[in-house]
Amino acid sequence: MPDPEPMPAATPRSIVTGVIGSDTHIVGNRILSMALEKAGYKVVALGALTPAPEFVKAAVETNADAILVSSLYGQGELDCRGFRDMCIEAGLDAILLYVGGNLIVGKHPWDVVERIFLDMGFDRAAAPGVRVETVLEWLAQDFAARERAPRRQAG
Questions:
Q1: What are the residue boundaries of the structural domains of the chain, listed by start?
Q2: Using a CB cutoff of 8 Å and minimum separation of 24, what contacts does 114-121 make?
Q3: How far apart are CA 79 and CA 67, in angstroms?
Q4: What tens digit of pLDDT does each residue of 33-88 get?
């Protein structure tokens, strides 16, 4: 598959990445962050062992367009509870939220796992082994869809 087209330099989107909770599995997250940078995104990489509120704080401070959360140790379901609500409380109602990895303990069909995280308010959930190119395609699709969507009127 060819490399994704880089974004135009005039409109770099900011994306916060990191590994949530007590998880130390950082290699896949670092590969994703490097691919995002190569594709033209401004990446704020929080690293491993990141509490959920730190993702939200970083997103507010950097005016991020998306947060990509990784979890490989199986506790993502616990670590991600209330994540969308934290974003809304911080004024990040429209931020894109992605989560990926080995998200829950035990063997479960992926559609069940995915539904858990979509119901939590994540826009996308990536199964273990999802390729970086897929995540880049999702981001392009989701950002384009938001640009096409009519703006909500206040009041």
A1: 14-148
A2: 116/77, 117/76, 117/77, 117/80, 120/80, 120/81, 120/83, 120/84, 121/83, 121/84, 121/85, 121/87, 121/97
A3: 15
A4: 999 999 999 999 999 999 999 999 999 999 999 999 999 999 999 999 999 999 99
Q: Which of 23, 65, 79, 123 is catalytic?
A: 23
Q: Say which CATH topology domain 14-148 has.
A: Rossmann fold (3.40.50)
For the whole model, what pTM was predicted? 0.89
Tokens coding 9: 């330099």
> Tokens representing 2?
């060819």
Is 3 considered catalytic here? no
Task: Indicate if 25 belongs to the active site.
Answer: yes
Q: Give per-residue pLDDT as tens, 81-103.
A: 999 999 999 999 999 999 999 99
Catalytic position from the list 3, 25, 85, 108: 25
